[in-house]
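quick one, 221 residues, struct below
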Amino acid sequence: PLGREKVHFQAPEHAKLPDEMVRFVSWFNTADRLDPVIKSALSHFYFVTLHPFDDGNGRIARAIGDMQLARADKTDLRFYSMSARIQKEKKSYYDMLEECQKGTLDLSIWIQWYLGTLVRAIDDAKTILESTLGKESFWKQHAGGAFNSRQKEMLNRLLDGFKGKLTSSKWAKITKCSQDTAQRDINDLIQRSILEKEEAGGRSTSYRLRRQPGSHDRGSG
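---
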């Protein structure tokens, strides 16, 4: 309510910010014995806690953390995105920041959360890489095959990890065709050993990619 606003966090006094920022930048750019990944976690937390700008502090903090991770990897090229993973976990991110900023500044739980998020970011990258390589392998294997536009669209969706069960009605809805046309598309792919029926598990028949030699399981799920 107006006049009873809850203060989640109060940044340092404005007059102290210039000196605090000089100290932060000096620490960030100074080589030390601190594990570089831990330093990424701490630099993110310290910057967002200093809160030097009216807006954009979180984005800059994520960029600073990513910069330190690049230093840790000793390369400008990374195939994972910590920023993207934090965006997916916004609620737990803000909850963790608030808990640590209001507490005793024991950052152990923040570091644990940050490292766990980093592991999940790397797992995300592995999933994307496996999907990309799987799609490339699939289309190379079927380079000589003839597929209509509906089949290409649905096969790519399956290769990307189709959510839920793929039925002929979903096929028809997504590709904007009739139920009969959808079923003909599906039957054609079954005859070519590309799709297969899933085990009975409901009122409607569902389909998935048939495992191809040397490929990863994608399909529906």
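Residues 146-209 form a domain with the Arc Repressor Mutant, subunit A fold (CATH 1.10.10.10).
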